[in-house]
Q: What sequence folds into this?
């Protein structure tokens, strides 16, 4: 299943009324072959899970519709709602790319990940470059593009020229991620490096972590948790 923002209430790309008038402007749909040209995958499962959650919230809130002419009004209302689409109370609009980009930026705000907060992408044509710079993997093998079998929840589907959407379910070929695997990536891995002394101490550690795009508070919380375990 995917969270897909694709057209307004008239089946067009602009000119409709703000909000989802039909329940289909931004909706949860079965995976389909656009075709896709790449998959953008964040290496941290926590980030992917939040992206998927926010995509679901947007698809289920009928105050969020589709209109390319008003595509960034969703981001404005998302900021006002504390970055949770479910809490938006004012009719607004996105399109496919503005919707996905806004959700990834919101995930960055909620998790304190600077690279996501400042995601530089603006439309499908520069999403591949912008997301790669923000730390996403770019997957182009045919097995990721021709079915959802190998997709993970929170992956971003992209056709550079036309469309993008958020994948919501793990494919049948996805091997469950164990705790041991999680510890090799993401905040917990950085926390282990902090404990090993690789990021310095005190204010120097805070400065270096934030410069690298990590939330100092999130990393420190993980350090404290590991030291207590």
A:
């Amino acid at each position: 299943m995917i969270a897909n923002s694709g057209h307004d209430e008239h089946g067009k790309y602009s000119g409709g009324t703000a909000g989802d008038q039909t329940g289909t402007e931004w909706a949860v749909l079965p995976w389909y072959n656009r075709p896709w040209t790449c998959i953008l995958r964040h290496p941290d499962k926590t980030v992917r899970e939040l992206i998927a959650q926010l995509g679901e919230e947007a698809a289920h809130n009928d105050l969020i519709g589709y209109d390319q002419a008003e595509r960034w009004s969703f981001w404005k209302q998302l900021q006002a709602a504390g970055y949770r689409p479910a809490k938006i109370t004012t009719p607004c609009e996105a399109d496919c790319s503005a919707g996905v980009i806004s959700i990834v930026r919101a995930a960055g705000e909620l998790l304190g990940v600077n690279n996501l907060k400042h995601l530089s992408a603006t439309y499908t044509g520069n999403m591949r470059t912008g997301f790669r710079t923000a730390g996403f993997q770019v997957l182009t093998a045919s097995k990721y593009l021709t079915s959802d079998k190998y997709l993970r929840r929170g992956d971003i589907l992209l056709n550079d020229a036309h469309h993008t959407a958020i994948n919501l379910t793990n494919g049948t070929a996805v091997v469950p991620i164990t705790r041991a695997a999680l510890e090799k990536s993401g905040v917990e891995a950085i926390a282990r490096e902090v404990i090993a002394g690789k990021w310095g101490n005190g204010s120097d550690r805070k400065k270096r972590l934030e410069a690298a795009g990590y939330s100092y508070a999130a990393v420190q919380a993980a350090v404290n948790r590991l030291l207590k375990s």
Notes: The longest strand covers residues 163-167.
